[in-house]
Amino acid sequence: MSRNQFGAYCAGVMLVGFAGLVRAETFEEQAVRIHAEAFVMDTHADTTPKFEDSSWDFTVRHDSGHVDIPRLREGGYDAVFWSIYMGKTPGDGRAVKRALRRIDSVYQMVAKHPDTLMLATTAEDIRSASRLGKIACLMGVEGGHMIEDELSALRTYHRLGVRYMTLTHSFNTNWADSAGTQAYVEGEHDGLNDFGRKVVLEMNRLGMMIDVSHVADTTFWDVMDTSKAPVIASHSSARGIADHQRNMSDEMIKALAERGGVIQINFYPGYIDPERIRATTKLMPKLQAISEQYADDPEKASAARRELFQKNAARPDAKKTPASVVIDHIEHVINIAGPEYVGLGADWDGVPDMPEGLEDVSKVPYITEELLRRGHSEEAIKLVLGGSMLRVMEAVEGVAAGLAVAD
Q1: Whether 62 is catalytic
Q2: Predicted confidence (pLDDT) per residue in 102-117, tens digit
Q3: Longest distance between any two alpha carbons in the chain, whole Å
Q4: 347 flagged as catalytic
Q5: Is 92 a catalytic residue?
């Protein structure tokens, strides 16, 4: 053996010995590390009405609801989009007034907890908040009825920090058709009308993300034909797993991905679990009766529907939806489009119940663990947890900057 060969042999022995001293990372440790390194973001939480209640303490861990600061911390959250939502409201200024009040409640909540929360309007703001150890707070308007057919209202919401608008909720606007929620809604415009297209283009110019959750299929395709920027579905799921009109077909998901958008998976069992969907269908006569009884009071109608769903979900013979169903939806999108085009939009505090194992925001690390267990890479998992959404935000910001230069 030559001197060089002997030297190489000794170096190899030392490397083997050193490698033996380095303990391999366990599955649990790997999952914890991935979750800690990722930007964890959810694009839909309906907690905002609680912000308007001065007696409600966001810093306390609550036994009810889905979201508070302690549970956000346990879930490893970096960012949340708070939903600015209300039911169908007469277009006489009341919708704008209520939206402004709800937007202000987000500002007030951030101001109360400056050491924990930070208002964010860009992808870079989210990164900055994370570096500071704070939770980035963003806003999305859930329902185009809140602009009351005024582009000036849309621009005002953007100036106040709103960074996406869901074009419809469970009912049609004067310019876009809705998919409904539990019951199908008859279209009025065959998708978007001319003013609806103006809304989409103005959102492109502003750098406000267009959200196609809740919209009719015809509206979705009109948006795809109109928007110059990538589009999001802030809280939708896959029709290929659960056939519900609130979910997106494979064709729609692929079209969204081809244009650089992202679908943020909704966790609500009533949308993602086929068995639950069939059970809900049986409740349609009672749901219709509620709609008729509270036709002039959408808040009471919403409360009555929530109570009905909660009672049925809590029945002793009611089968609980397992958290694994959420992963099924995520995997479905990964398989047909890729991990760059899927994320999380749970619908926290906006639905009667959540799957068993994902009861609140503190349980979100389960998603990391299960995706890892199913063989997905660290890169793919980090995209699902928030990386995909950060990419879309930056792309929409880039389109707006390009349009500003062109002007």
Answers
A1: no
A2: 999 999 999 999 999 9
A3: 94
A4: yes
A5: no
Give yes or no: 214 in active site.
yes
User: Which member of 217, 222, 347, 397 is catalytic?
Assistant: 347
35 part of the active site: no
Is 66 catalytic? The answer is no
CA distance 310 to 301: 14
Q: Which CATH number fits domain 27-273+321-406: 3.30.420.40, 3.30.1360.20, 3.40.630.30, 3.20.20.140?
A: 3.20.20.140
pLDDT one-digit tens code per residue, 113-167: 999 999 999 999 999 999 999 999 999 999 999 999 999 999 999 999 999 999 9
Closest alpha carbon to 343 in 394, 392, 386, 390: 386
User: In the chain, what percentage of residues exceed pLDDT 70?
Assistant: 91
Q: Which of 158, 189, 235, 244 is catalytic?
A: 235
Question: Of the listed 42, 68, 125, 142, which one is catalytic?
Answer: 142
Which of 66, 214, 332, 376 is flagged as catalytic?
214
142 noted as active-site residue: yes
